[in-house]
Amino acid sequence: MQELHDEEFEQTDCLSCANCCKTTGPLFTDKDIVRISKFLKMKPQQFISTYLRIDEENDYVLQQVPCTFLLNDHTCLIYEHRPKACAEFPHTNRKKFHQITNLTQKNVAICPAAFNIVEKMMKKID
Ligand code: SF4
Ligand code: SF4
Are residues 53 and 19 part of one domain? Predict the structure, then answer.
């Protein structure tokens, strides 16, 4: 999977896509919140009340999509400090990839690179 993932992302231009940032938000861990609010010179509580809400699974997520931090040229305002979930998206290089099938099904619908990776993986299995 790591090989397929690396191969695909060598050819993928995320800046011409940004579909993940436009259509689905990441979840924010406590560490993410502390790091990002510091970067934005806000108090964590202020950051939470301005940008986040708690979802059905009790996680902090964005109040709205497209992501507030996505800029017009598809770059990310907080790129160096972005949530862990953004840095790891679409999770196709996870060691325990087989354990995240539901997540992957969701992500192939959003991410053309994840779609290609999974398609190549299926061909290898055939
Ligand atoms: S924080 Fe940055 S990388 Fe994450 S969804 Fe928003 S714009 Fe995209
Ligand atoms: S949806 Fe996939 S290909 Fe598109 S920007 Fe996100 S990670 Fe890159």
Answer: no
